[in-house]
Amino acid sequence: MGDAIDRRRRLLLGAALSGMAAIDAGLTAKAHAQAKAPAATRTSVLRRLEPLRHVETDVLSIACFEEGPATGPAVILLHGFPYDIHTYADVAAILAANGCRVIVPCLRGYGETRFRDTAMPRSGEQAALGADVIALIDALHIERAVFAGHNWGGRAATVAAALWPDRCAGLVTVNSYLIQDMSRAMVPSAPENEEAMWYEYYFQLERGRAGLATNRRRIARMLWEEWSPDWDFDDATFDRSAAALDNPDFVDVAIHSYRHRFGNADGDPRYAELAKRLAAMPPITVPSVTLDGDSDGVVAAGDGSTSAARFAGRRIHRVVKGAGHNVPQEAPEAFAAGVMELVRA
Amino acid sequence: MARASSTLRLEPLRHVDAGPLNVAYHEAGPANGPVVMLLHGFPYDIHSYVDVAPMLAAQGCRVIVPYLRGYGPTRFRDEATPRSGEQAAMGADLMALMDALSIQRAVFAGYDWGGRAACIGAALWPERCRGLVCVNSYLIQDIARAMKPASVMQEVAYWYQYYFQIERGRAGLAANRGDIAKILWKQWSPNWDFDDACFERTAIAFDNPDYVDVVIHSYRHRYGLAESDPQYADIQRRLAALPQITVPAITLDGAGDGVVPATDGKSSAAKFTGGRMHRVIPRAGHNLPQEEPEAFAAAVMELIGGRHG
């Protein structure tokens, strides 16, 4: 399978990177200069984000890690699938050391976050993820924050920034504009991209649901390896995050998320109005920094031009050298630097 | 024997009405020789046998190499016939072709879809089957267990099957049939250094107007997510019992097969009751007849010669 991954990578990267030379060579040094946190944060790979506090919203009891001065500018750090809050183990420390109030929630279906009502649909739709961000900052009485995320968390951040710009001081995402265009969900992509999305198609079948329930760690590990081919994470690092996938709602939320985006699952009526607004692909009007990992094995790095029209405010796009899909954990300085630029703006 | 150049074509083709199809096929060898049916897979065509067919013909066999339904110049005779790709249809097509050609008995040899057709023919009509050569052993699908997950690595290798479950996959196959096939060729035969001419020679078979419908139906039906063509209901009912293969059989696995990993044959041993030899062919991938024609042809000749079973 190593060969298959390598082949997949070559296909993806060959197509995406030919002719592109957008590597921001100065970024790492700049990030180090801005982030006063010591480089030692990278070596403490087994840092656990603890303790967690629980925040009640209308739907969820959200488990959150909080770090940094309570009076600092707030930053919400949103993880993806199949990851957890430890994507931000280093980023959180860097931002807190720079004076930010950092909130790192477990998304619905992950870690210690729970649905408050057993009857509540276990929706994984994008509107729900965005609404959860706003419900969380409401509950914490945070008026405005930087929303930063990757993968599902990047989508949650994009949704919240687009629909509640008055609550958003700035947006940092990996892979640019992440609101799903459901009207184009049935339009095929290039075969090598479709192959990289094998898990999404697998999850359309009950076989995929059973497979995820039975083999969630093996699937997650394979995706980590495929998506971050240059990231040499160890077992302890993987296991620290994989424990979050044992959440009793993980399978339901993940399966719903991947079916809903292809029109194969109904949305939760509670989010129908938001979903309708998202269908219009609303622009991002807040200042934004978008990052692509140049070795991202699932969403090929680009120069940001294809999504340029979605950003109506100031937007900086960077390609992060050596990073895969899990940019915040693989290149925490670069990710934290993106946040700090918005905090200081 | 030297390998055929990648520009050589299996020609001429003949056409015969057989069941719901007008089947295009290549024939080689003496008309009175022992008959061998060579059945190709997805996404391939009759040129999987571009070397095997002349080898067998030179040894006195009458070789029949049909394009399966949905491939090349084979056509449905009636616009209204469902474009089924279910396993029962593949087996029934084999019998209909033999009937149309007045062939009483033959060796059935195949891989992938063609290996499945051969297994079905051998299992349900053993009196018509002199012996079975099949890549990846027993290939009759256990649809009742289709929702049971396999290992994660196996599920990844099946990405195209899951893709084909949704309409996006149908549109993707229609738009990118060549590119998808090429990815699968490379994944399934990592040691096979085929050239563009070799691929293109086969890829034109995917322009068949029924290709997308048959392929999509095949991959949905096996997961219980597409209806059967009612005319095959009785055959499918018999296949659901996973019938044994009672004729002499030689099963081959490619040690480099990238989609169905090579085995020692033991897990399928109980399915073969008529004498069965299993071999792992070094380096070979999934398209074993084209990659290792000598090994494939030798297996056929052993069944013809009666030295086995």
Explain what this protein looks like in three dimensions.
The complex is a heterodimer of chains A (345) and B (309). With 345 residues, chain A is α/β, with parallel strands linked by helices. Chain A has one domain: Alpha/Beta hydrolase fold, catalytic domain (Rossmann fold, 3-Layer(aba) Sandwich), CATH 3.40.50. In chain A, 39% of the residues lie in helices and 14% in strands. Chain A has 14 helices and nine strands. In chain A, strands 1, 2, 3, 4, 5, 6, 7, 8 and 9 form a nine-stranded mixed sheet that branches. In chain A, helix 2 crosses helix 14, helix 3 runs parallel beside helix 14 and helix 4 packs across helix 5. The longest helix of chain A is centred in the first third of the chain and has 16 residues. The radius of gyration of chain A is 18 Å and the shape is globular. Chain A starts with a helix and ends with a helix. The N terminus of chain A is likely disordered. Chain B is α/β, with parallel strands linked by helices and 309 residues long. In chain B, strands 1, 2, 3, 4, 5, 6, 7, 8 and 9 form a nine-stranded mixed sheet that branches. In chain B, helix 2 packs across helix 10. Chain B is globular and about 45 Å long. The mean pLDDT of chain B is 96. Chains A and B meet through helix 1, helix 6, helix 7, helix 8 and helix 9 of A and helix 4, helix 5, helix 6 and helix 7 of B.
